[in-house]
UniProtKB/TrEMBL annotation:
Keyword Zinc: no
Assigned keywords, A-Z: ATP-binding, Nucleotide-binding, Transport
Name of the protein this chain belongs to: ABC-type transporter ATP-binding protein EcsA
Every ABC transporter domain range: 3-231
Gene Ontology MF terms: ATP binding; ATP hydrolysis activity
Pfam families tied to this protein: ABC_tran
């Protein structure tokens, strides 16, 4: 198994952020990590990446014990957080030059140019990081993560700020990485976007595991659910006792996205019932 998480528990003082989470994921799989805000998704990823220590539990990622093999883990894993930090004093090209040298990537400049072209950043190669839009910063961080071909990719809300072509490029690249043997964990509130890419789903709520398994199996547990969103709402509302409308208040629902990874278009947008389109901040 490429990822083995056994009884992961994380406490912040008296707040239980992750509660005895266990799952395994093999090479070449793409796992969608989903749940409402505060479910423990980012904390789980940060523990897996070795950025924060688990309070309890055994975590093995890419053959490394997270608590003890930190150097080897960094060579095999890439974590891209939501709103990734960049070096303000470096250009786009210098970021990739730094990563290429740090990881001793063969022919890193040719590879870097290919990634920048793939994510439509080649024209920004000499631009400073502070001049980039949110979406461009996100794409640059993903290029840096891809450059050294990590065995495990942890992508926390990677679709944030991306335009439709950027979303398409990212999802295609995730599928390509998995086909080459990488294991990918991707968190997103845009469930319809990742529906056609993920092989597995890990659903969390209030720090606890609600479901883990094949994406298709989640729908089979809720036969009335026609979409991933509906199955997700059913899975989370069952534990909480909340009606489906309450679950809708926690997750942005986008339906009828293009399912073949062509350029996405929005046909339906569901907002919290208490907000009008003019009042909602998206």
């Amino acid at each position: 198994m490429m990822i083995q998480i056994d009884q992961l528990t994380k406490l912040y003082d008296d707040h239980l952020a992750v509660d005895q989470l266990s799952f395994e994921l093999s090479a070449g799989k793409i796992c969608g990590l989903i749940g409402p805000n505060g479910a423990g998704k980012t904390t789980t990823m940060r523990c897996m990446a070795g950025l924060i220590p688990a309070t309890r539990g055994e975590l093995t990622v890419a053959g490394c014990h997270v608590s003890g093999d930190s150097l080897q883990l960094k060579q095999r894993l890439a974590y891209v957080p939501d709103d990734p930090p960049l070096f303000d004093d470096l250009t786009v090209g210098q970021h990739l030059e730094f990563i290429g040298r740090l990881y001793n990537v063969d022919d890193h400049r040719t590879k870097a140019n290919g990634l920048l072209s793939q994510f439509d950043l080649l024209s920004k190669i000499n631009a400073g990081a502070t001049t980039l839009s949110r979406g461009m910063r996100q794409k640059l961080a993903i290029c840096c993560a891809y450059l050294f071909d990590p065995q495990v990719l942890l992508l926390d809300e990677p679709l944030t700020g991306l335009d439709p072509p950027g979303i398409r490029s990212l999802l295609l690249s995730v599928r390509k990485r998995a086909d080459a043997g990488a294991t990918v964990v991707i968190s997103s509130h845009l469930l319809a976007m990742i529906d056609d890419v993920v092989t597995h789903l890990l659903v969390m709520q209030r720090g606890r595991l609600q479901y883990f398994g094949a994406a298709a199996d989640l729908r089979s547990q809720f036969p009335h659910a026609k979409t991933l969103e509906e199955a997700y709402f059913a899975a989370t509302s069952n534990e909480s006792g909340l009606p489906e409308s309450a679950a809708l208040d926690q997750v942005l629902e986008i339906k009828n996205m293009a399912s073949d990874l062509t350029e996405p278009t929005l046909d339906h947008l569901a907002l919290p019932r208490s907000e009008s389109l003019g009042e909602a901040s998206l």
